[in-house]
Input
Amino acid sequence: MIRHTLLFLLALACLPAPVVAADSVDAAIRGAPSCGEWVAQRKKADTLALGNATWAIGYLSGLGAGSGRNVFAGRDNAAVFAWLDNYCRTNPLKDVAAAGRVLMAEAASHGVK
Output
């Protein structure tokens, strides 16, 4: 009986995971600052701002790698941060992860690959 259970679990583990569109997943993203925090800390230009900027670039790099899209095409880090500043000033209750998803959607709508 234990052998059958183990074989079943092994077979189950080998099944491919379902592919789900990123917009349909409401997942908690760890470490994402709120847009209100982003704006306040960017004004201070302190170590928290540097940490948030590093987090944002890493998050966007991960989104790009996972989607096959280069969100940085034609943008340097300063341009990405300016975009995030504008988004976050307009949407202070959102978080930077949500901003990153919007930026990725914009890149996709402009045909960026």
Observations:
- The radius of gyration is 19 Å.
- The first helix runs from residue 2 to 13.
- Residues 33-113 form one domain.
- The chain has five helices and no strands.
